[in-house]
Amino acid sequence: MIAKIIRLNTLENGEIAPATKKILEIADHKRLVEAFCLASATFSEGPFRSLRTKIFLWWLSAYAKLLTANEIYGGRLVYGRTQPTRDIELHRIWPIGGPRAPRIADFILCVLFSAPALGLSIWVFWYLGVIPQILILLFVVFFVSLLVRTSLKPWVRTASLNVSAMLQPRPLARQTLVALIAGVACWTFFEPLLGLITFVSVWIVVGLTVGFGQTLANGSPIRAIGPETVLRRDHQISVVSGLAAWVLLAFLWSFKLGLPVAALVALLYCLAVGQVVASALWRRYLATILVAGFRICPSPRWLLRVALRRGLVRSRGLTYQFRHDDVRDYLAGYSWKQDHSSSAEGIAVIATGG
């Protein structure tokens, strides 16, 4: 860190700028760390520069405080998993929102986004007789039980496309059986074409998302390296999973809404579901942002990218790390109400290059 400050303020003849020498001579260690952090985080262009800088540092401080707390407790355990003291895992940041709140928000998201599809499907089946009513109610109970299980589970698996897992007979058999039951039901009470569409759609959705029959996407090792790799792949799986149900919902709802309207409504709904809740890890990430409120950045990925460009964090494998423990410790104690005037001279020197 000190080497970066010296490099930024070295004259063409190789000597350190006089003002930098003065700062290095009179500033104690804490002031030097503060000057580095503030200079790296300062927004030099655009309106409200001072406010934006303080908010940027405040958002970063949330991660520093979490890591520092984990270290103080000697490797804090959260539901059986030791929490990191240096690594910021984007796909595992939910403990920053508390031990329960992110999981409760996860469940609420599931309920809110599932309710429209379940309501319309019940409306379609309800007037077909007693047997369809029983079947749709059993499906609702089964679906809700899955929501409770996946959304309240503390640690959810990553998802990446892994078609080779289809060779596993047990999950493949479960996946095919569930799709077959759904397909036969729609074939019986509606028409053969809808039965075929139901079978294919359910087979794909279960294969991508549902744990007991997940053969198309599962927690296989991540080959690509990068802090956003896991989250990006999970988001992609979520979008594909949402769109996989589009044709099925469009045909099913067309019995009540007409095909053009049903197709449009189903498309908008599937896009929304894919962007938010179709994949468990991505949904937990969004739930954490919601429950944390303004205490963390609404886009942690953007925040850490900017911090990476400015040298406050570094990329290491699938995680981000603060550049130095001193940077982490300073940010852990950061308050946007504190007075930075004592480091004003150092900030100016570092930001302008002497």
General description of the model:
This protein has helices at residues 2-8, 18-26, 29-41, 49-72, 101-126, 130-152, 169-189, 192-209, 229-244, 246-257, 259-276, 280-292, 300-309, 325-332, 344-352, and strands at residues 77-78, 81-82, 87-88, 160-161, 217-218, 313-316, 319-322. The protein is mostly helical. The protein folds into 2 domains: 2-89 and 318-352, no CATH class; 102-292. The strands form 3 sheets. Strands 3-7-6 form a 3-stranded antiparallel beta sheet. Strand 6 and strand 7 (319-322) form a beta hairpin. It is elongated and about 85 Å long. Residues 341-354 have low confidence and may be disordered.
List keywords for this structure.
disordered C terminus; single chain; 15 helices; elongated; 7 strands; 3-stranded antiparallel sheet; mainly alpha
Overall spatial form: elongated
Proportion of residues in β-strands: 5-15%
The count of DSSP E runs of length 2 or more, i.e. the number of strands, is 7
Count, helices: 15
The SSE order reads HHHHEEEHHEHHEHHHHHEEHH
Class based on secondary structure composition and strand pairing: mainly alpha
The radius of gyration computed from the alpha-carbon positions, rounded to a whole number of angstroms, is 26 Å
- The N- to C-terminal Cα distance equals 17 Å
Which regions have little confidence, pLDDT < 50, spanning 5+ residues?
Answer: 341-354
Major pleated sheet:
3 strands, antiparallel
Strands side by side in the biggest sheet: 3-7-6
Number of domains: 2
Helix content: 55-70%
Quote the average pLDDT: 81
